[in-house]
Amino acid sequence: RRAESQKRTVQIHQNILNELGLKLKPGSDKILDFGCGDGIEVYQFRKMGHLAYGCDIANYFDKTQTQCKEEKIIEPDETIFCEIDMVNYRLPFADDTFDYIFSNQVFEHVQNYPEALSEIYRVLKPGGSSLHFFPSRYRPIECHVFVPLAGIFQGYNYLTFWALLGIRNQFQKGLSFKKVAKLNYEYLNTRTTY
Predict the structure, then answer these.
(1) What is the pLDDT of residue 194?
(2) E strand intervals along the chain
(3) Taking the CB of the first residue and of the last residue of the chain, which one, N or C, has fewer CB atoms within 10 A?
(4) Long-range Cβ pairs for the range 164-167 (8 Å, 24+)
(5) What pLDDT does 134 receive?
(6) 8 A C-beta contact, residue 156 and residue 185
(7) Which residues contact 37 (CB under 8 A, 6 or more apart)?
């Protein structure tokens, strides 16, 4: 089911680019998923014949790297995922490498927009395209903690109210309301930039 959703997401990318008069050419255009998470969108682009790569602040992508090798989507010695150097904040790619760079629900976590955008610009080829999807802070249900309007209202008491009502994300099942409220408060106030 998730794979089907990611296939649709990749098709959305292509549709948007086509509307703008840009066409990704399988086998020649290089694509970067900035903040790739587990790398499933990179996998979908690779299955379609694109030279897709992914990077993130931590290694969440080993399973997908292995899957790509097992399915012979990439060469046995090819590495298509890497970690971002967070000390010097540098993407691990040469200047002017990619024809298309995208992210999906990443920029609401970026803590330093000028640095991130500068690095994307650096590795994007002249004339390349960059497309970034991110949830609105006005979304009725915040997509990380599942608390209504938590993109706007991030106070501890507000989050405690929803934790008392039993609102939990997939990682919080079985936790006390106090623990959930504390986790949500810390997450929204230190790891999101709505």
Answers:
(1) 85
(2) 30-34, 51-56, 81-83, 98-104, 124-133
(3) N
(4) none
(5) 87
(6) yes
(7) 56, 60, 61
Sheet holding 81-83, edge to edge: 81-83, 51-56, 30-34, 98-104, 124-133
Which amino acid is it at 80? I
Contact 188, 152 (CB under 8 A): no
Contacts of 98 (CB under 8 A, 6+ apart): 30, 31, 32, 53, 123, 124, 125, 128
Instruction: Decide: helix, strand or coil at residue 100.
Output: strand
Q: Which amino acid is at 111?
A: Q
pTM exceeds 0.90: no
Cα 67 to Cα 2, 55, 70: the distances in Å are: 15, 17, 5
| Per-residue confidence (pLDDT) for residue 178, from 0 to 100 | 98
Residue that has been written with the tokens 């030279």 in this structure: 51
Q: Token digits for 19? A: 């509307």
Cα distance between residue 127 and residue 37, in whole Å: 26
Q: In whole angstroms, give the CA distance from residue 64 to residue 74.
A: 11
- Half-sphere exposure of residue 5, counting CA atoms within 13 Å on the CB side? 4
For the four alpha carbons of 90, 94, 95 and 96, in that order, the dihedral sign comes to negative
CB 41 within 8 A of CB 10: yes
Q: What is the pLDDT of residue 46?
A: 95
- Cα distance between residue 134 and residue 114, in whole Å: 17
- pLDDT tens sequence across 167-194: 999 999 999 999 999 999 999 999 999 8
Question: What's the rounded Cα separation, in Å, for the pair 137 and 127?
Answer: 31
Element (H, E) at 121: helix 113-123
